[in-house]
Amino acid sequence: MKKIAVLTSGGDAPGMNAAIRAVVRTGLDKKLTVMGIQRGFSGLINGEIFEMDRRSVADIIQRGGTVLRTARSEEFKTEAGQKKGAAILNAFGIDGLVVIGGDGSFHGARALSKYGINTVGLPGTIDNDLAYTDYTIGFDTAVNTVLDAINKLRDTSSSHERVSVVEVMGRNCGDIALYAGLAGGAESIIVPEKGYDINELCRTILEGKLRGKRHNLVIVAEGVGGANDIAKKVEEVTGIGARATILGHIQRGGSPTSNDRILASRLGYRAVELLMEGKSSKVVGVKGGNVIDVDIDKALAMERKFDEKLYNIAIALSY
Ligand code: F6P
Question: Phosphofructokinase domain spans which residues (predicted)?
Fold first, then answer.
């Protein structure tokens, strides 16, 4: 292994820069040549490849987004696009590739490995929706961004004695809603893994009011969606004013938390180690606090388990 490359793909996530920095500096520390690929697989196909040195990743550990930029490439989903990507990597003499991204990006990495490119995937997504790892890079920052919003919404919800329905990201995964809801003391957490009943929600809200609650926070994961409709229905049924807030892409930005920077640094380091050990088609992650690696096929086939226990704790503490 002499020359490796790194790219970021799919939705950006805070901590991706810390991961790029870790890959580049570990590679250089181990006397490898490290190339950066811009705009994910789309940039790969276009040959947007340049050499990186220690200074190329200076002053980025604290920055959200990705200095390599990112994209979702339709062309790379095709066999022709993947072959083109592998040919470009060969033309540049790149022996190993680190792909930082989520589920879709890992499918891309797997495709390249089928054409003989050694690949290792790093989980970079705010969604925390990858089954093989306890946490993905960016999730902790996104949860804290939501938490900051919830704290503010609680103030106005208390002052007006209204219900605040907050819709958060996560694609089909309810983790951002669950973790932010628990940390923010939300009254109700609605996630796709559990579903919900509008009458039960309204009853919970009314019972809370009778017990003297002035605010009421309902966190809805985007996998369920419909925050505006939920707020409308709640107001109609309970007679209590309700407002919806859809947090949107604010959750994807911002300076990464220490947890995300440390996770990114540990996983980036391990990814390069794996490539140097001659491993391929692997993804790295964290389980029970330890850095692990898993075969990409196995990781992609694993079904994510919702944390029922954490959900039950959040409900038990909510009223
Ligand atoms: O995967 C990250 C994520 O922010 C999801 O939570 C959300 O469903 C999606 O990306 C939004 O995608 P886009 O950036 O295309 O709006």
Answer: 3-275
Phi, psi torsion values for 278, nearest 5 degrees:
85, 15
Q: Which one of 9, 66, 126 would you pick to mutate in the ligand 1 pocket, going by the greatest count of ligand atoms within 8 A of its CB?
A: 126
Mean pLDDT taken over the chain: 98
Per residue in 134-184, pLDDT (tens digit) is 999 999 999 999 999 999 999 999 999 999 999 999 999 999 999 999 999
Ligand 1 pocket check for 126: Cβ under 6 Å: yes
Would you list the domain boundaries of the chain? 3-138+256-301, 140-253
Atom 7, ligand 1: residue with shortest CA distance: 171
Distance CA 10, CA 283 (A): 16
Which atom of ligand 1 approaches the CA of 169 most closely? Answer: 6
CA 33 / ligand 1 centre spacing (Å): 33
Res. 201 pLDDT band, cuts 50 70 90? very high
pLDDT of residue 145: 98
pTM of the model: 0.98
Mean pLDDT of 306-319: 97
Q: Which residues are annotated as a binding site for ATP?
A: 11, 72-73, 102-105
From residue 291, alpha-carbon distances to 36, 61, 169 in Å are 24, 20, 26
SS (H, E, C) 187-252: CEEECCCCCCCHHHHHHHHHHHHHCCCCCEEEEEECCCCCHHHHHHHHHHHHCCCEEEEECHHHHH
Q: Write down the pLDDT at residue 2.
A: 96
The CATH superfamily of 140-253 is Phosphofructokinase domain (3.40.50.460)
Classify domain 3-138+256-301 by CATH number.
Answer: 3.40.50.450
> Which of 95, 127, 140, 293 is flagged as catalytic?
127
Atom of ligand 1 nearest to the CA of 171: 8
The pLDDT of residue 54 is 98
